[in-house]
């Protein structure tokens, strides 16, 4: 019998940590194996640590070293649990319901349908207090106020009518601190569905009660066609006339070359190449009206751009140093809203938004180098931090917050607010996606009933057959070779997760439209701002694009198998994007291969270039 190797200190610590979690009744973040069978999707997580109720599900459990400075689980996402019956009902529906493509009209969305005013879909406010109160009394008062808010919300909305929203009071407290400390609020949203992530109650509270200004940052502008970007910008301006609106992208001119292109392309995507920092500066200059000297910020932006052009592959440690402060609890809990704007001649920008809208990418782009780790995992930002861009400008980062709304939960998942790896039932969201995109032409799927047919026939006949969400997942599992560990059946759960990650990352792009978009589409396609948006996105003109394609045609074609060229989009699960190109970079000498994605085709629109 061979002797077993003794456990290392690292393994012993890990075992001890698991034992502690089990004693607390905390099972962590779910199954560790990605090759688990389909039944894994029905498992329920039983995280009851520090919980007074049993109807809240805590997500994103992180290893916690009690000797560490911060508790990484303090700002975990807390969402209301769904009943087992509801999950099973949706799973059955995904097997039986035949997918039908929705009309273009159904892709249009109105913010008043998402946040109806009569439903009381606000957010918890910090109760009044004074310096004579003890810390314990203040916390108790905040907890009572928060429970009253939840009771009022449930009394106005029947069970099941609300979307997923944050139930962690600690995260709401971080929002209060950021709003109180900031002079100008950067409210960051995803351009693909901005009205999902723009709560009107928050805007009116900031501009009305706090008397502060909001800059709406339409992030990920490179994922939408230019006419749609312009349409959303004008729609938000018409709904909120005093709102400053800026379009932003961290990756101009760097689209996905293939559907399954690997994400980590850091060297090809410098942070200083982002499109939009100058527009944010101009908006802040208009708001401050000369009360803060922002010339140092403008000089920094130009210096970063010049340095990037001179040495595009410079390491992050060669960039300018940025002072970072971690805010302690004692420094924030007993702090009152600052009545003095631009105190000591410093502009404080608060960055807030839903999970996965790209807050960390915006901060990294403004700083000019990576200071915040970026992840597609909702709830990745774990604590409050401030970053000094210059001596007169600092940024405050806030963990992502999900506000209550009446949006479909399936659309919420496609927007990236719920960790895909912890979904109990991903199939209905896949069905929602497929009904709004030409998935067959993009994914090149073969219907499960034709799997045993002649392989030389390819996908012939798949278009005429009826598809369910389960069929799509099964066909994608067959296409990508996802098999369960024991029985070697098609792992449809993993396939569903893979498809959802493609949608969240923008590889399989679903963009919603403002109301009336189809009726005015010709106006937006000929809008005078179109060249400006295309320049922001880094898109080529028709002549430049033709020349680029001619150059590519002269190169050798790649004969490397597709499976070797295209790495699976869910290889990293929901881990940190440490090298953070966020997946869209491509160089002139890169050879496009397989599964070329046309986002405009997904939108059922013609190319605008």
Automatic annotation (TrEMBL):
InterPro entries: G_CP_dom, GNL1-like, GTP-bd, P-loop_NTPase
Keywords associated with the record: GTP-binding, Nucleotide-binding, Phosphoprotein
The organism's place on the tree of life at top rank: Eukaryota
Segments forming domain CP-type G: 172-404
Keyword Nucleotide-binding: yes
Ranges of compositional bias, category Acidic residues: 549-580
GO-annotated molecular function: GTP binding; GTPase activity
Pfam families reported in the protein's UniProt record: MMR_HSR1
Region (Disordered): 1-72, 540-609
Basic residues bias: start-end ranges: 1-22
Job description of the protein: Possible regulatory or functional link with the histocompatibility cluster.
Name used for this protein in its record: Guanine nucleotide-binding protein-like 1
Species of provenance: Sparus aurata (Gilthead sea bream)
């Amino acid at each position: 019998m061979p002797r077993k190797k003794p456990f290392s200190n690292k393994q012993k610590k890990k075992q001890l940590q698991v034992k502690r979690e089990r004693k607390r009744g905390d099972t962590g973040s779910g199954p560790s194996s990605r090759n688990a069978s389909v039944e894994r999707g029905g498992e329920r997580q039983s995280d009851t640590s520090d919980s007074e109720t049993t109807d809240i599900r805590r997500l994103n459990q992180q290893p916690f070293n009690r000797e560490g400075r911060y508790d990484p689980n303090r700002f975990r996402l807390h969402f209301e649990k769904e009943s087992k019956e509801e999950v099973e009902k949706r799973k059955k529906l995904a097997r039986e319901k035949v997918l039908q493509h929705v009309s273009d009209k159904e892709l249009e969305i109105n913010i008043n349908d998402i946040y109806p005013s009569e439903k009381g879909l606000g957010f918890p406010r910090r109760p009044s207090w004074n310096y004579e109160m003890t810390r314990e009394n203040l916390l108790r008062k905040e907890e009572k106020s928060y429970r009253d808010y939840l009771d009022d919300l449930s009394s106005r909305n029947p069970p099941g009518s609300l979307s997923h929203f944050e139930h962690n009071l600690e995260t709401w407290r971080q929002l209060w601190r950021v709003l109180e400390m900031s002079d100008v609020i950067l409210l960051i949203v995803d351009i693909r569905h901005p009205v999902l992530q723009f709560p009107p109650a928050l805007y009116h509270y900031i501009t009305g009660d706090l008397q502060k200004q909001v800059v709406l940052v339409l992030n990920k502008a490179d994922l939408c066609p230019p006419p749609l970007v312009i349409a959303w910008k004008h729609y938000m301006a018409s709904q909120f006339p005093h709102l400053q609106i800026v379009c932003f992208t961290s990756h101009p001119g760097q689209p996905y070359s293939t559907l399954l292109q690997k994400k980590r392309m850091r060297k090809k995507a410098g942070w200083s190449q982002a499109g939009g920092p100058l527009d944010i500066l101009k908006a802040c200059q208009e708001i401050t009206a000369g009360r803060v000297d922002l010339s140092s910020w403008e000089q920094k932006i130009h210096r970063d751009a010049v340095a990037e052009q001179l040495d595009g592959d410079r390491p992050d440690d060669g960039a300018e140093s940025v002072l970072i402060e971690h805010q302690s609890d004692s420094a924030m809990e007993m702090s009152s809203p600052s009545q003095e704007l631009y105190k000591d001649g410093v502009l404080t920008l608060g960055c807030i938004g839903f999970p996965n809208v790209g807050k960390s990418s915006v901060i990294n782009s403004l700083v000019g180098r990576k200071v915040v780790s970026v992840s597609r995992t909702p709830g990745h930002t774990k604590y409050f931090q401030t970053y000094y861009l210059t001596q007169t400008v600092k940024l405050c980062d806030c963990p992502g917050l999900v506000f209550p709304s009446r949006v479909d939960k399936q659309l919420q998942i496609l927007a990236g607010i719920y960790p895909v790896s912890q979904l109990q039932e991903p199939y209905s969201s896949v069905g929602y996606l497929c009904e709004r995109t030409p998935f067959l032409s993009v994914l090149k799927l073969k219907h499960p009933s034709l799997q045993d047919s002649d392989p030389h026939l390819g996908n012939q006949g798949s278009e005429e057959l009826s598809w369910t969400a389960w069929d799509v997942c099964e066909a994608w599992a067959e296409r990508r070779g996802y098999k369960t560990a024991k029985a070697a059946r098609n792992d449809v759960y993993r396939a569903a997760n893979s498809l959802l990650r493609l949608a969240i990352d923008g590889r399989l792009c679903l963009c919603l439209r403002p109301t009336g978009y189809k009726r005015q589409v010709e106006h937006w396609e000929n809008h005078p701002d179109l060249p400006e948006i295309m320049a922001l996105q880094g898109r080529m003109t028709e002549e430049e694009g033709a020349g680029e394609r001619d150059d590519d045609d002269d190169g050798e074609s790649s004969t490397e198998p597709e499976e070797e060229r295209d790495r699976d989009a869910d290889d990293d699960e929901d881990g940190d994007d440490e090298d953070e190109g966020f997946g869209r970079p491509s160089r002139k000498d890169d050879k496009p291969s397989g599964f070329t994605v046309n986002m405009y085709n997904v939108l059922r629109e013609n190319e605008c270039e």
